[in-house]
Write a structure and sequence with these properties.
Elements: E1 10-13, E2 31-34, E3 41-43, H1 58-81, E4 85-90, E5 93-99, E6 102-110, E7 112-116, H2 122-135, E8 146-148, E9 151-153
Parallel strand pairs: 6-8, 7-9
Antiparallel strand pairs: 1-2, 2-3, 4-7, 5-6
Helix pairs in contact: 1-2
Length: 154
């Protein structure tokens, strides 16, 4: 039986322009995301909701978390299977739409582009994306589909 894992983060609002939340347009959405011993992540809302375009928003962080989790599992599985990955990049996208009057994610699509050292491992490398998807903790925790459309080359 696996043991429980705990993850801590502190979110501190930094957008008080002097009058707090006295009006919708009176405050900034800026905040800092911190945890012990790590660099601060500057956060904000999506620009649609008066956020700062120079800061990460929660929607981007969720998509990035899904892409990271998939990549880390994939690299692990490739190493175990004897597949040497020499390059990995993913242009992941998430879609939010209004469903029953509530805006929510309806899907995330991962598009990993992978280079492997040996042409004989391309099929195995492609197949391992399904295994990585099945193992990803984050993908197993969300209530919307996470699709993957990998492209593997040498």
């Amino acid at each position: 039986m696996p043991s429980a894992h705990r993850y801590d983060a502190t979110v501190t609002w930094t957008g008080n322009h002097g009058t707090g939340t006295s009006a919708y347009r009176a405050y900034g959405r800026d905040h800092d995301i911190t945890t012990d011993g790590r660099p601060t992540i500057p956060g904000s809302a999506d620009p649609t909701y008066r956020g700062d375009t120079d800061r990460w928003n929660p929607e981007q962080l969720l998509v990035a978390s899904l892409a990271q989790c998939h990549m880390l599992w994939y690299l692990h599985l490739c190493a175990d299977a004897g597949v040497t990955v020499t390059h990995y990049t993913d242009h992941a996208t998430g879609t939010m739409t209004a469903v029953d009057g509530t805006t929510r994610f309806t899907e995330v699509v991962l598009r990993p582009r992978v280079t492997v050292a040996d042409p004989a491992t391309v099929d195995t490398a492609t197949r391992l994306h399904a295994d990585a998807h099945a193992a990803c903790y984050i993908a197993n925790s969300v209530a919307f589909p996470v699709h993957h459309r990998p492209h593997v080359t040498t």
